[in-house]
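Following the same procedure, sequence and fold were stored together, as reproduced here.

>
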Amino acid sequence: MLPQPRVTVVVPTLTAGSALVECLVSLVKQTRRDFEIVVVDNSGKHLAREAEAERFGARVLEQESNVGFGAAVNLAFRESRAPFLATLNDDTVASSGWLDALLAAAESRPDAGMIASQVRLAGDGRLDSAGMLVSGDGSSKQRGHLEPPGRFADPAEVLCPSASAALYRRAMLDEIGLFDEDFFLYCEDTDLGLRARWAGWKCLYAPEAVVDHEYSGTAGIASPLKAYYVERNRLQVLVKNYPASLLWRAPWATLTRYFWHLISILEDRGSAARFRREHHGLPELIFIVARAHCAMLFRARKLWRKRRAVRSHAHIGAPEFRALLERHWIAPRQVAAL
């Protein structure tokens, strides 16, 4: 009988192409062997089996349709008994010491429920993520995005990890719950991270856990799909997790970010400018924003119930949580510039 794996590495996939194969090859080359690989195929077309994912020792779980990132990870977690769960995008390549570095960080601090990797932009050399930052309107951005990795070479406590390459402690997930499947795509890692911080869990950044990432390889860097889910889901993060003292200020932070997005369009930089360059007009962008707010209002009662559930697991008070957010803050102008 095989020993119980220390880590379950979950790789959700939609296209199961050559990128998935490269990702699995990088996992086979890890310096430790006490882990299992679970590929969750969201294609509904058996693409992971066609890519021969099982040839790399992966167990394949197939969905009938695309259920989203969080639901795919949750499925694998429910079938796992490992004390740690790692998430990895299918368009990433992990360094050989990736898992070793993540586990070393987790084992150094029993109160660390989450470990963030150093995620680099593939073929670029600059950082994609060294943890996450949040803004006053619920927006989240990658810490260190587009900066040289050398500036983030030291271990540190960060707010929460990007789930593109992260490690989570089972004890934490058993306490606070899994990814919120209503997010479907984007920001579910921020939501999970903030729920964990309310419950008193910490997040560490492990700079030696290096991963190369093809940024937004699935939904596109500036696609209407991504724009909608990011806008809708930052509202869900806001309502579920922000203390009342910050909620009333959120509309002003939102308007401020929209203003700087408009400036960035005029200056041809940032995500809004990329959206405009890809032949998506300003009316479409306004429609996406309006649609996202309508979706949030439609779910308002459900979100408020979830907000109460988050508070039921809280081990810190609102002033302490607000101070935590402010230590990992990003201004609306900076959000618009990325």
